[in-house]
Amino acid sequence: MAHTFLLEIGLEEMPAHVVTPAIKQLVKRTADYLKEQRVAYDDIKPFSTPRRLALLISGLADKQDDISESVKGPAKKIAQDADGNWSKAAIGFTRGQGLTPDDITFKEIKGTEYVYVDKFIAGEPVAAVLAGLKDVITAMTFPTMMKWGDHHFEYIRPIRWLVALLDADVIPFSILDVTTDRNTRGHRFLGKDIELKQAGDYEADLTSQFVIADADKRKALIKTQIDKIATDNQWTVNVDAGLLEEVNNLVEWPTAFAGSFDEKYLTIPEEVLITSMRDHQRFFYARDASGKLLPNFISVRNGNDHDLQNVVAGNEKVLTARLEDAMFFYTEDQNKTIADYVERLKSVSFHDKISTMAEKMARVTAIVGVLAKHFDLNDAQTKAALRASEIYKFDLVTGMVGEFAELQGVMGEKYALLEGEDPAVAQAIREHYEPISADGALPASVPGAVLALADKLDSILTFFAAGMIPSGSNDPYALRRQATGIVRIARDQQWSLPVADLARDAIAAETAANVAPDLDQTAQVEALVNFVKDRIRKILRSSKQRHDIIAAVTEGSSSDVLQIFTAANILASHADDANFKDVIESLTRVIRLAQKAPAELATAKVNPDLFNNDSEGALDQGVAKVAAAADQGLDALYASLADIQPTIAAYFDATMVMDKDEAVKNNRLTELSHLAQLALTLGDLDQLVVK
């Protein structure tokens, strides 16, 4: 007989951003537990609101699956002595299986006899297994945890009730002083407590008490209500998915409503208005048919439409207070110039172990100069990037950003335009923060991309030099995100970005401009390269690249971000070629022999007079062709390396590299070293798995 089981964890209101990950975690942990316990089921349906995490498991088996298996133990010669007595190994083996030596039989495998026991374990009733869900609940983890009462136990919020119903029967267990029963709770203000007769009544009974427990149904209802208000008022409302998810996790019985604010506030930049509505108040903003922002908003109440006008008035009052502050700061900020704000940055700390914010900008200006030259920017792009680097943090000390921290960069762009700065400069100021998340938008302009790279390179280098290198999950200054940004920007712009060389050039430029910090940045260049390569590995793994190709391209000598990605694509595109195995094996043999050569041979010249057979001359000509192809890019390089594979094979068939004659040997190692250096441009090919 199939059963239905309900598990509900009743809590104080959880933060909205925790609800969805928490219910997903509970589903996974429960599914893993049932699999581990050999309990079959058809489906797990999740329910979640700010006050509850619940699962309805349908098609649950009566009991665990029985275990009937033959278990292999030690060899007979180990299990028994010469007199046939059982050894400690045999006794220990059977004890571990819950049996005795009397249960032992022997089976022969490839001429050797082994101990076997037939093991049968009857499955426990499902009710006994479900009581173990207590441990599933208490094992859950959350971004922040709290204690309550005199308990040492930590959870996202205090547990107030527990429901565990197998059909109509309570599965008993307790967490702290809360014991499972059949009683759940309706809406905090509109509903009342409910005694569930059976598990399957859960969703309908809660609905009768003003709780829509199904998060997907609740979200769909909110969307429908917003769309209706927008249609009735001829508004265009962008129902942001993230905001909808957050609002959905704040309510149990949603009722959407519209509100308004004074049109005078529309003189404030719309980013400020949207931030006030969306981020601070969780309102959806409205536009007219032409896309113009309207003095209206839509919000969602956790309740019905009773006295809704009072709720509307209250929300309008709160928003107006925010907008009044914004208008004040917007007006006041314009009483000072950008130069005034830049001067104030001299007393603002970037980090007390590194420098002031003004000193950081000076370093970034030096780095921008290096990057502009490396990327061969035109005069207009270089001028815009350099000017932006001199002022790009000024908005941090404005009143608006002090009140609305989310608008840093955005207000920098607005104020720069108001003061007559080049639009390219203003855009770069906003874009230098990008990407603001691992997969966030990237700078669209060249000056913005250069400034973003320079700012991120400086941050990572200086924090590393100050001894603040991320470890484990600890990354308080978001340096991993900044490294990911460097990688993504270089790839997006298709810029060659040799991290090691550019970092050294940047440090030299800072020193020449007398703006270098009192820190040893040079000692951190290798760590910077490894840090950036870690981000490249993560991106390649997320794109389902082969693990051996990832290892090859990231463990090679190159620190050029774009070159590493290009090499990965090339190796992946040729991995199924008929000659791929032969090409890689030939090149790895070259590389391994070249590693035995003294370092000075890498730059020595090959002497044709020391050739003893035709294959040496053929290889020398082949290496010259590969070197010429390398100037045309990695695709041409790989094609050329593949073309000379037969030449390499013929060379090894005819030539003993480690000749007794020292001059001949070194000449051959020189030739191989030149070829190895070209091959290593693609990466550490020895990491590749070829079949």
UniProtKB/TrEMBL annotation:
Its main location: cytoplasm. PROSITE patterns: AA_TRNA_LIGASE_II_GLYAB. It is found in: Cytoplasm. InterPro entries: Gly-tRNA-synth_bsu, Gly-tRNA-synth_heterodimer. Coiled coil: none annotated. Keywords: Aminoacyl-tRNA synthetase, ATP-binding, Cytoplasm, Ligase, Nucleotide-binding, Protein biosynthesis. It comes from the Bacteria. One of its GO terms (molecular function) is glycine-tRNA ligase activity. It catalyses: tRNA(Gly) + glycine + ATP = glycyl-tRNA(Gly) + AMP + diphosphate. Its EC number is 6.1.1.14. The keyword Ligase applies. Tetramer of two alpha and two beta subunits. PANTHER family: GLYCINE--TRNA LIGASE, CHLOROPLASTIC_MITOCHONDRIAL 2, GLYCYL-TRNA SYNTHETASE. Belongs to the class-II aminoacyl-tRNA synthetase family. This is Glycine--tRNA ligase beta subunit. It comes from Levilactobacillus tangyuanensis.
